[in-house]
Amino acid sequence: MDTNLNQNGLNAVKGAAGGASAIARAIGVTPQAVAQWKAIPPEHVLKLEKAFGVSRYVQRPDVFGLAELEAAE
Prior knowledge:
about 75% helix; 434 Repressor (Amino-terminal Domain); mainly alpha; about 0% strand; 7 helices
């Protein structure tokens, strides 16, 4: 799986949330932890999906697949 897709997912959540601090507050970690991510850890994806409306398929296509992305095209 292309790591750029995972980075795109992280950027999508950062954009929807307004930054790393909002993400950190939503899941109970520090902004510094979020800043170190190369991809969103799978255990946080569903909570972030609920909090910010960014689909799990966008956040981590390597874990949840591309089904929704492919259906949208």
